[in-house]
Amino acid sequence: SKTQVGFIGLGNMGNPMAKNLIKHGYPVIASDVFPESCKELQELGAQILDNPADVADKADRIITMLPSSPNVVDVYTGANGILKKVKKGSLLIDSSTIDPAVSKEMSVAAEKVGAVFMDAPVSGGVGAANSGKLTFMVGGPEEEFNATKELLTCMGANVVYCGQVGTGQAAKICNNMLLAIGMIGTAETMNLGIRLGLDPKLLAKILNMSSGRCWSSDTYNPVPGVMEGVPSANNYQGGFGTTLMAKDLGLAQNTATNTKTPVPLGSLAHQIYRMMCARGYASKDFSSVFQFLREEEGQ
Ligand code: NAD
């Protein structure tokens, strides 16, 4: 039978990801600072422990799915962090979206205690996490890629090797910058069409058979009533939080500054998502930029 896998961070994404590991026959040992998040997984038979160190004491393969860089630093190197009790030869896979420089730091810290750290951020959203169809972008030692892939294929349809540690994050940050730009573009386009008297469903249908089509228009439409099963159909609850998108755009800005790369639209998207965070949209799904734009026009 399969050996146990540790999972830390059972939020919107971690919860369905860990469920898919269980579905594939892996006993899961999990931990989250917010006990409520562990309930569902516990009912499915996962063992819940108090902190990441205790998980590392039991499992020699651990996946982390946390909000941002400081949480990852805490979970790996904090007083009750993974590296306090990690076993030699352990494989540590971080699927959070964080600063590539922090991934490199975690990799160095892991190496010092004889463990291997890989960055493996995901794309696809909560729907893809549920159906096991995420895309993983993996950075780290190539000789560890197959062992990493064995676990990630339980949760994803695509597992892509990107290069040395941090390159998975680089790919992810680029994707999310484009996603934000596409979402804002879709929201303002849909709003303009509605103001011009078009039915939103019809407009979405036309965009999706035309050259304006994108993921935000055909899979995650931001306008309530256009699609079912997406956050816009549920008052923008669940999904991918506006705070998290603002964080990813901030990461894109940092890397663009460091590499002297012009990213004017990425920069504007960052400012828009930061304004949303300050105006009550922080915990709503990032497609709520549609609602934000409607308010801006004073309706
Ligand atoms: P989330 O906020 O829903 O979940 C994060 C979980 O981590 C929470 O349950 C929280 O309690 C837990 N946590 C925080 N600090 C912890 C600590 N020190 N120890 C243990 N647990 C801790 O976030 P999410 O939507 O699941 O996203 C997780 C990561 O995946 C983020 O980096 C995000 O950018 C990325 N991501 C999210 C989506 C999406 O659609 N939601 C898609 C792709 C990537």
Structure characterization notes:
The protein has 299 residues and is of the alpha/beta class. The chain has two domains: 5-163, NAD(P)-binding Rossmann-like Domain (Rossmann fold); 170-296, Orthogonal Bundle (N-(1-d-carboxylethyl)-l-norvaline Dehydrogenase, domain 2). 49% of the residues lie in helices and 13% in strands. The chain contains 14 helices and nine strands. The protein has helices at residues 14-23, 39-43, 52-58, 69-77, 82-85, 100-112, 125-131, 145-152, 167-195, 200-208, 215-218, 242-258, 264-281, 289-296; strands spanning 5-8, 28-31, 47-48, 61-64, 91-94, 116-119, 122-123, 134-139, 156-163. The strands form two sheets. A six-stranded parallel β-sheet has the order 3-2-1-4-5-6, sandwiched between helices. It has a three-stranded mixed β-sheet with strand order 7-8-9. Strand 2, helix 2 and strand 3 form a beta-alpha-beta unit. The longest helix has 29 residues, at 167-195. The model has no long low-confidence stretch (mean pLDDT 97). The structure holds nicotinamide-adenine-dinucleotide. Residues 8-14, 31-34, 37, 65-67, 71, 74-75, 96-97, 122-123, 125-126, 239-240, 244, 248 line the site of nicotinamide-adenine-dinucleotide.
